[in-house]
Amino acid sequence: QVQLVESGGGLVQAGGSLRLSCAASGRTGSSYTMGWFRQAPGKEREFVAAIIWSIGRTYYADSVKGRFTISRDNAKNTGYLQMNALKPEDTAFYYCAARMDYSGTYDYWGQGTQVTVSS
């Protein structure tokens, strides 16, 4: 089992920054991908960014490229999503998730954290 706990959400003005954290525990090892997803009211959940934990390769949704940066700290087993130049349309509930290398899906999810960007 893998446990994920997000933190760092909040209210920020447009143009501001926030950093989300996702602390992983349990049977993670290094053979997994950590992803960030978000869901706004009335919309479907969408992919934001992901990082292959073992090699640090990153992936981003077009909507956040150049503004968001995903990273990880191996020693702390914690992933981060640095969000800069935030826009009101970034307002959503943000979740981190883990996809083990042997699985094709994100099987483990955190409880989520709210990000609200005011105009």
Write the layout of secondary structure elements.
Blueprint: E1 2-7, E2 10-13, E3 18-26, E4 32-39, E5 46-52, E6 58-60, E7 68-73, E8 78-83, E9 92-100, E10 108-109, E11 113-118
Parallel strand pairs: 2-11
Antiparallel strand pairs: 1-3, 3-8, 4-5, 4-9, 5-6, 7-8, 9-10, 9-11
Brief sketch in words of this structure:
The chain has 119 residues and is mostly beta strands.
Percent in strands: over 45%
Radius of gyration: 13 Å
Order of helices and strands: EEEEEEEEEEE
Strand tally, please?
A: 11
**Mean pLDDT, all residues:** 95
From the N-terminal CA to the C-terminal CA, the straight-line distance is 40 Å
Helix proportion range: under 10%
Number of helices: 0
Shape: globular
Return the structural class: mainly beta
Main β sheet profile: 7 strands, mixed
- The poorly predicted ranges are none
General description of the model:
0% of the residues lie in helices and 55% in strands. It has no helices and eleven strands. Strands 2, 4, 5, 6, 9, 10 and 11 form a seven-stranded mixed β-sheet that branches. The protein has a four-stranded antiparallel β-sheet with strand order 1-3-8-7, with no helix packed on it. It is globular, with a radius of gyration of 13 Å. The N and C termini lie far apart (40 Å).
Task: Fill in the keyword field for this structure.
single chain; 119 residues; mainly beta; 7-stranded mixed beta sheet; globular
